[in-house]
C-alpha cells in the first residue's frame, strides 16, 4: 500500500566535483559527476558569459536581449589546470573554477578579487511547473555599492535592497514599490574603486538581493529557465555601461523633432480640442513638436481605427497640424477587440495569430475595448503582420510616431493584472508558457511596431515609445516611466528613474511631466518642467481626470517658467543631439549619475539628485516646495554657475541660491556649449549662426558637436558634421582649435562665440594665425565674437 504520495523534496541542490572539461576556441565546458555543465564563453577580454545546465545538456541558445550585431573577440586567452582549480585568463581578468564544487572567483591581473561565489550556483526543482528555480549567491565586500536594474522607484544605490523583475501595470506606484513596468536584470557593482557588471539574461520572474537578507551576500534567482549571466569588468563604471549597452544593442538616431517638447493627455478629442491645444502653444510661443492622441481617437478603442465623430477626416487634420509644425503621435495597445466585423480581429483570427491557453482556447482578457484577444508578438509571422498594419496610419494619414501602452501585458479585472501563466507563446520557435514570455511581451510588441513604422515612414526615421520593456528594447524604442503621480515624492522618483535607466542601457527615457495621476500645483509643475527638459524624452502627460495640465492651466508665472525652460531645451538641441550621437555610437549614457561621472570620489556613491547632462552640464532639480535654494554636491573640477557665471571649485557640498524660475545648473570649465536660436518647432527657422558658449579653463578641455540633416538616413553615408573643439587656457591666452569630420555642410556660415570667465582683458584676436582688427569684427560688449565656421584655430590674447 502507498503510504506517502508526496514527491520527495530535495531542497537546494549544488554542483558536485568536476570530472572533465573541454576547451574549444572561445568556450570552455566543465562537467560534474551529477550532470551539471558550466559553459564559460570569453566574448571579450573583459566580457565573459557563464551558462549552467543541470540536465547534462543545454537547450537551444536563444535570447531576445543580445544584439545579433554585437561584435566580440579577445586579445588573449589561456586555460590552465592546477591542483584545486581551473584557471581562465584574459588580458584583463582571470577566472578560477574550483574542482570540488564548481564555485568560481574572478580576479584582476594583480590578484585582487573582483567577484567571488558565496554558495555560487544552486537550484531547486520546481515540481509545480517543471524545470528549476535557478539561484546564484555572491560574496559582497564591506562598502560595496550597487547600481542599475533599470526602472526602480528607489535610491540610486541599491545596497540593502531586494528587487523583483516582473513587468507590471503599476498605476500610481509609490516609492520603493516593486515590481514596475520594465525588466532590466543588469546591475553594476562598485568596490575598492573597481566596477563590474552582471547581466542575468533570464526572462522569467527574477529577484535580486543586494545584501538585504545577509549583510555580505548578494544573490539573484529566477523562477525558471537557465542560470545564464554575463560578467563585465570595468574597472571604470563607464566601461561596464558601454560594454553592456553594446551587448544588448543601441538604437538608431531619432529624428531631431523627437527630442523636442511633446504634449499629451488622456485624451485630446475631438479634433477641435486638438487644434485648440496646438494653437495655444503657438499663441503663447511655447515650443512644441508633437501632440499625442490617446485611446479616445479610436472607434470603440479598436486599434488602427478612427472615431469618425471626433475625427471626421484624420488625414486632413494631421496635415494641418504638420503645417503648423506639430507631428501627430498615436497610441496603439495590444488588446484586439473581439468583434467579427472588425477587420484586424478577423484577419488575426483567420491566421491563428492570437495567444492561446494551454488547453487550446484563445486567451481572453478585458482591457479598454472590453473582451479582447492578444497577438503573440513572439511569433515572427505575427510581428510581420503587425508591422504591415501601420501602412494606413503612417504612409496614408501621415502619423509620425506610435506609442505602445498596456503591453506588460496589462489585463483588467484579474488578480495578477496580466495573462494567466499557462498561456502559450511561439518564442521565435522555442515554444514556452507565459512564465517565460511575460517579461519580453512588451518589447516584442514594440519591435513589431518599430519595423512597421520604419517601413512606412521611410525615408524618414521612426519614433516609437513603449511602457513595458526588457533589456535590449532600446534597439527599437524609447520609453517613459509609466503612471506616476503629481506629488513631490514622484518628482524625486522621476529624477532617479531616468538616471538609472540611462546607465541601464535605455537612455531615451523620460517621465510624465507634472504626474499622470492627480493634479500638480503650479509650483510642482514648474519644478517638474525644469527637470524634464533635461531628460532625453520630454513630455507632459496626464490622466485628465483631475483637471487640465497644459502650461496655461496655471498662472502667468508658470507659463513664463515653462516657456523659459522649454526655450532652453530648444537652444540646447545640438548639445542634446550630440549626446544621443555618442549614445548610439559608443554606448555612453546621456545622463550620468555622479557616481558614474567620478567613481573615485566616495562622496558620489550615495548621491541621488545631481546628474551630469551630456558631458559638461551639471543639473540638480529643486525637489521640495517653497525652496529658493538647496544644498548640492559639486563634482571635482572647476564649474561655472550657468545663471551667474560665477566659478566654483568642486569636490564639496555647497548651498546654491536659486530663484523660482531657476534650478541649480553648472557648466564644466573649458566646455564649448552649442546653441540654436529658439524655434517653435524643429525646422521652423533658417539661421546663419550657431552660438558657441565657451567657458574659460586654465588647461585643456575637449568638446564635440554632432549635426546632420535632422532626419533621414544620409548620416549613415557619411553626411554628417562632427566638430571637435579643444580649448587651451593659459594665464593670458585662450586657444580654441576646431577639427571637422563628415560630409554634411551645415546651413549656417558663422559661429557667434560667447566667451565666459576670461581672467584677462582682450588685447588681440587671431583667426588661423591672422590678427584681426577689432574694427573688422562684430566684437561687441559682453565678449561676443563672430567668426567664419571654417576656422581651425582661434587665439584670444590678453593684455
From TrEMBL:
CDD domains: GH31_glucosidase_II_MalA, GH31_N
Pfam family, one: Gal_mutarotas_2
Family annotation (InterPro entries): DUF5110, Gal_mutarotase_sf_dom, GH, Glyco_hydro_31_AS, Glyco_hydro_31_C, Glyco_hydro_31_N_dom, Glyco_hydro_31_TIM, Glyco_hydro_b
UniProt keyword annotation of RNA-binding present: no
Organism: Flavobacterium xylosi
Designated name of the protein: Glycoside hydrolase family 31 protein
UniProt family annotation: Belongs to the glycosyl hydrolase 31 family.
Keyword terms of this UniProt record: Glycosidase, Hydrolase
Enzyme Commission designation: 3.2.1.-
Segments forming domain DUF5110: 689-757
Domain Glycoside hydrolase family 31 TIM barrel stretches: 251-579
Glycoside hydrolase family 31 N-terminal domain segment(s): 38-209
Entry GO MF terms: hydrolase activity, acting on glycosyl bonds
